[in-house]
Amino acid sequence: MAGSTFGERLKVTTFGESHGEAVGVIIDGITPGLELDEAYVQIQMDRRKPGQSSVTTPRREYDKIRILSGLFEGRTTGTPMCIMLNNTDMRPSAYDDIKSMYRPGHADLTYEKKYGLRDYRGSGRASGRETAARVAAGAVARKLLERRGVSVLAYTTEVGGIRCETFEPDAIERNLVRACDPVAARSMIERIEQLSANGDSCGGIVECRISGVAAGIGEPVFDKLDAELAKAMLSIGAIKGIEFGAGFQAAAMLGSEHNDQMDRTGFLTNNAGGIIGGISTGADIVFRVVVKPTSSISVLQQTVDMYGKEREIVTEGRHDPCICPRIVPVIEAMACLVIEDHYKRQAALLDE
Amino acid sequence: MAGSTFGERLKVTTFGESHGEAVGVIIDGITPGLELDEAYVQIQMDRRKPGQSSVTTPRREYDKIRILSGLFEGRTTGTPMCIMLNNTDMRPSAYDDIKSMYRPGHADLTYEKKYGLRDYRGSGRASGRETAARVAAGAVARKLLERRGVSVLAYTTEVGGIRCETFEPDAIERNLVRACDPVAARSMIERIEQLSANGDSCGGIVECRISGVAAGIGEPVFDKLDAELAKAMLSIGAIKGIEFGAGFQAAAMLGSEHNDQMDRTGFLTNNAGGIIGGISTGADIVFRVVVKPTSSISVLQQTVDMYGKEREIVTEGRHDPCICPRIVPVIEAMACLVIEDHYKRQAALLDE
Amino acid sequence: MAGSTFGERLKVTTFGESHGEAVGVIIDGITPGLELDEAYVQIQMDRRKPGQSSVTTPRREYDKIRILSGLFEGRTTGTPMCIMLNNTDMRPSAYDDIKSMYRPGHADLTYEKKYGLRDYRGSGRASGRETAARVAAGAVARKLLERRGVSVLAYTTEVGGIRCETFEPDAIERNLVRACDPVAARSMIERIEQLSANGDSCGGIVECRISGVAAGIGEPVFDKLDAELAKAMLSIGAIKGIEFGAGFQAAAMLGSEHNDQMDRTGFLTNNAGGIIGGISTGADIVFRVVVKPTSSISVLQQTVDMYGKEREIVTEGRHDPCICPRIVPVIEAMACLVIEDHYKRQAALLDE
Amino acid sequence: MAGSTFGERLKVTTFGESHGEAVGVIIDGITPGLELDEAYVQIQMDRRKPGQSSVTTPRREYDKIRILSGLFEGRTTGTPMCIMLNNTDMRPSAYDDIKSMYRPGHADLTYEKKYGLRDYRGSGRASGRETAARVAAGAVARKLLERRGVSVLAYTTEVGGIRCETFEPDAIERNLVRACDPVAARSMIERIEQLSANGDSCGGIVECRISGVAAGIGEPVFDKLDAELAKAMLSIGAIKGIEFGAGFQAAAMLGSEHNDQMDRTGFLTNNAGGIIGGISTGADIVFRVVVKPTSSISVLQQTVDMYGKEREIVTEGRHDPCICPRIVPVIEAMACLVIEDHYKRQAALLDE
């Protein structure tokens, strides 16, 4: 792949820059005959869209998707589905002042080194806007997973040093940060609003729980299910780490503590996070990712420009002080794509 | 891929079970004209081989590799190189007692659920022995990277709760756990020997530092350099998490702290771990992985067998009480494969 | 791939049905910094578009392309380029009468067997309209090849039993059938118009000549340059065979006749068609493809419907009596994609 | 791929030079639980091996395969199967005289241009010996296809200008050229022996018939079943063209003649060769390939050496005067790999 395609049997290819004409995705390999419409996809888009609340960017993209192919009389045809979103709230002139500068934390320098030139309008291809296309594709995968009884749920567990103490699934979509603890959520929101007022940003942790995956899904060796989930998550720009089950705590555990023993009802613990040897155990798949603080801040920073000159920079613009709430649906989307793809690979292997 | 192939332009495919006749690898896409011999590869094999010391398994595999193709008159031909290792110290009968039982922490259950049957001799394909093939392939990639001035160095930073306090690169290959702190190393070895005497095991953390990578290597979006390194690392059975740069600490950092500011000499910090937007910044690429405690322990554990009956199990056999020292060359090998592959992809993109 | 993606390093993914909202393509892996605009691509689109002349379908699609991404200030950015065409002259109601019938020569039966349902409007995804997206992608590849001094030229050599006797490159774009012999072209046009009046169609042969390819391009074994060109050509619906150089005549030749001997000026013959062992020799790459007669004819034919009932069918509608003239730019486009992709693979291999 | 890997879900990767230590293949994605043994694979190897008769090369390779992995207690495990053949009758010194010369018809020049160096011993990687690995892999695919009721049969239909007039399947394995007409076979053998005495060689045509493939197998657009079969066949060094069904004769046919009409019993003709729109129709898949005359001849030829000097060359050695009889099992093997792979892709798509 040249970097914009993901998946083996359910294959998605995205395109589009943040301030170009449109972003979109082609999804190939969709099981035919599935009932689907734009409204179903739009539900997920609306969870990711900017301008949802006081803790997200005020940039307003209506993110209204259109399905251009692969659907006929309300059913998937099995041929590629193109889903497109026009970019509507573009203000490229806002980037004129900084077009020659490398914004700290942004991919400005790296894109220029890689390509020799770059689209400086709002991060171009490296923008979080690219993830809108992933959410659209993930919605289609989610629909396919529903048939299998698989559900994917992500939620914020830590923001700016504040951690969730309880897990209340019903609370997640009812608070602005999509935290699983409504009390912690209130502190998180307060913290974010305070940082936002200072022009600063903060990071956090999001956990994802995938339920209903049968035992035996995942490939051995290089395409382990956890390896592919790790790739999927780290492919989201703001994510800098991932851990499964007991995760980094395993470093201080004994084998006799970490091993998940079994009785006839199943596993007694889930330190493995639902995956052993790269293949699902039948227990919930559980992983956590760390989300870095948003790079765009209006605090004064030191940098250089493309001519090697030292400069001071204040990244104005409309940005999320904490990306956790909007990254939750992106994480779910990528998880849906990985799981559905591996179900399809398993079908190809067994093929009975 | 069906799971046993890795890489786009430098492509490796492994085969072999731990107690079958042989394990091996085909490496395709090797730059032609490179001077290489078996001895160069063997150096890396010897770092991974069992039976090195008191803290590794006493299982003795000489791990003598043979290069069967792709080499002519001391130089690579550009055609596929097959490297093979015969399995010499097989004792499959050792597994007779447990062949119907699912060992806790092992892939016994998951392989059986996936394939409907499994090679129960020493974990079969899920065995750590498969990584010998990766180390062989990684040695070839390392040779290619040397021409570019890229070096890859991994080392243990934590074992059984004991952490390194200093970073002394020269110490790494001089202590049995490959730790970067020779004082901590002594405590680690003591801890491992004690656990080994009790039939238990422990986990740890390994850090990897890749130096000399030019800015601009890595693909955007799905094939980000960190995403591919994450996949590569999580594809190693014992690894349950990865973090880049500041990693999980980023959750509690502000944007103004996490952003790596620049002056004309380069980045002032390296919280990004050398990768932004999936592309190398030119700074060292730094990541840490968590290594779970070895699953094979001789402590009594509760499990079930393939007939659903509850059983007690003691995994006898010859196992590593802590896999950190032997996983270090595997991590380096996978890192070498990823970096060389992405250099080749960049050459294809620019192609001037 | 799930079937709609082509290429390794220059990778194209198409979408769209003939009577849906749009068709389009994402091209990934384009060398950055290339000057390109919509007008350059449009030139090739206009060579393929319907309604060009008396020997093509009167269906009118303006085939005006739009580039939605991957271009910035007149240069390619190296990120995916999406090129889209809206479908403008759709008359899906024209297909109401035949929606339950399997048209002879069409993919109606096969799509229904594969997917369990099908978009019956104008062949859906199996329509020749899908090739418009290929021509757009091929134009980008052609631009990349121009830098290398590679040119790709296809032309009709046989139509309805009439064969070209001369090769006059300047004549090709000056006659309606894109034949390389202007005298034969006149007979071909006459033949096509006569068949068209009868509601019948005819086949033909198109030759393609690729000049300027350096020796050494192509992969060994499975991805031989001729193998990939063969796949590319047979992936065009109407093409049923391909031969390189001496082609099928080689069956009756001796080794001493077929072998291309050399002197210091190069090859004395080109029976190999410019490729030996899957790798370019430096001579022109020459192949011929056979184009089947257009399946849509208004002659009465016997068929069955989806209920297994025998039916008679007359495929009304607006169709090409001979697809040769419009398939020429499609063949060139696919050839451009293959050659540019293999140049990029070679760059990845050597990478110096 | 870097050229030595084939297939999506049933994936084969070959290695090995003709005069190196061994050739072999890794087959990944094999359905687990399949009964298989070395003897089953050996049957196909013996059909391809040299030294079978007066019309094949006297080079003697016993071609005894060994299965090194992926098999346990007589059944496939679903993990990669490595099959290896040692090279036993190597006489590399036979090539000393010609190591600096480019043999006409051989890949000497092209490999040197591509790689900058080459293994000159018996064509190295470009040798027909590489196809032994394909035959081994094809045998495994054939076993998988047997479960589906699919059979693959190839046979010589033309050699040195002599054509089969009858189709007698039982005759094929009973004559030395594997022709479907035992009378023509006698003339063919005579012709080959005569050419062989003169040090010359001849080409031919092989037809392949695949029976029992259900309607609906194959991918749309780029991975059409005929496109993939074409790639598979052209990836065999000696093959220079392919045609399906009516093939090149379609150039002179009318649509009303070429279209395969239907009644309730099925298709009335099979001009499409069993594939429409890239997807199987349920009729036999029929294609023909042209096999070029063996390049190695002992007739005096003109060439140049690697220093650009004009030379005369007589390729001594042990070669097949006509490769048709030994290419028949290679063609079958590649066809088996393509068909089984596409069945697996279809299973992934539908996945019910």
- Largest interface (CB < 8 Å): A-B, 111 and 111 residues
Rg estimate of chain A, integer Å: 21 Å
**Which sequence of strands runs across the widest sheet of chain A?**
1-2-3-7-4
CATH structural architecture of chain A: 4-Layer Sandwich
Tell me, what's the shape of chain A? globular
Q: Note the main sheet of chain A.
A: 5 strands, antiparallel
Query: What is the multimeric organization of the chains shown?
Result: homotetramer
Function (chains A, B, C, D): This reaction introduces a second double bond into the aromatic ring system.
EC number (chains A, B, C, D): 4.2.3.5
Keywords (chains A, B, C, D): Amino-acid biosynthesis, Aromatic amino acid biosynthesis, FAD, Flavoprotein, FMN, Lyase, NADP
Catalytic activity (chains A, B, C, D): 5-O-(1-carboxyvinyl)-3-phosphoshikimate = chorismate + phosphate
